[in-house]
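Q: Here's a chain of 274 amino acids. Please give me its 3D structure as C-alpha cells.
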Amino acid sequence: MSWWQVIVLSIVQGLTEFLPISSSGHLRIVSELFWGQDAGASFTAVVQLGTELAVLVFFAKDIFNIASGWLRGLFNKHARGFEYRMGWMVILGSIPVAVIGFLAKDYIRDALRNLWITATVLVLFSFVFIAAERWGKKNRGYTELTYKDALIMGFAQCLALIPGVSRSGGTISAGLFTGLDREVAARFSFLLAIPAVFASGLFSLPDAFNPTAGQAATGAQLLVGTVICFVLGYASIAWLLKFVSNNSFAWFAAYRIPVGLAVMGLLATGVLQP
C-alpha cells in the first residue's frame, strides 16, 4: 500500500467508524474507486484499533466503573449492582459476533466484500433505520438495559460483518426496536463494540502484513493509520452522541441510499469492478 492510500483510507475509517453509514463499506468503495483494488479486511480490522482506542478514552469513566463493579460483584454477591450486570451484558452481547466472525472469517474476507453486496445493503438497510425510528418507543434509559437487550444488539452486531450494514447502525437500530432511547442505544453500541473490534484487530494483525486477500501494509503505515483513526474517531463519537440526542437516526438513511444507488450505477457502467 502507498502512504497516500493509507492516509486517505485511515481518514475515511476514522470519520465513518461510529456513524451508521458503514466504515467497511466506505473503505471498500473508496479503495476500488481510487486505486482499483480492495485494501482488504485485515487492514480495516487493524486500523479499527485506533477508533476503538478512542472509545476507551471517551468512555474511560464508564468502562472503569463497569469493570470495577463487575470484579467486585464476582467476589461479593452483595455488591452486584448495575455495573456488575452491565459487565455481563457487554460479555453476553459480544459472544455472537465472536463466534460467527471466527467461523465465517474466510467468507467475510472474500465473498462478502463484493461491491454489489455493499451497495445493495447500503440501500436496503437504510429502511431498517427508518423503521426503527418510526416504531421504536425510545422511552427506556441507561439503567433500564437488560440482558435481553444485550443479546439482541449482540446478534445485530453480527450484521456488521457485511460491508454496508454498519456496526453502529445495526446495534443502534436493534436498541431502538427494543425501546431504548437513541443516546442510550448509541452508548451501549460503542461499549459493545470494544471486545469484538479489539479481538478482530489483534487477530488480523499478522494478515495485514502478509494478507491472503487485499494489500499488505508496513508496521509504520499501520501505526500512522491507527493514530489518524484515533483522533478522528474520538471527534466522531462526540458528534454522534450530540446529534442523536436531538435528531432522528433516519437522517443517515438520506445519505446511505443515494450513495448505494450511485455505486450501483458505477458498477453497472463498468466504472467500478465488484
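Q: Can you summarize the key feature?
A: The chain has one domain: 3-268.
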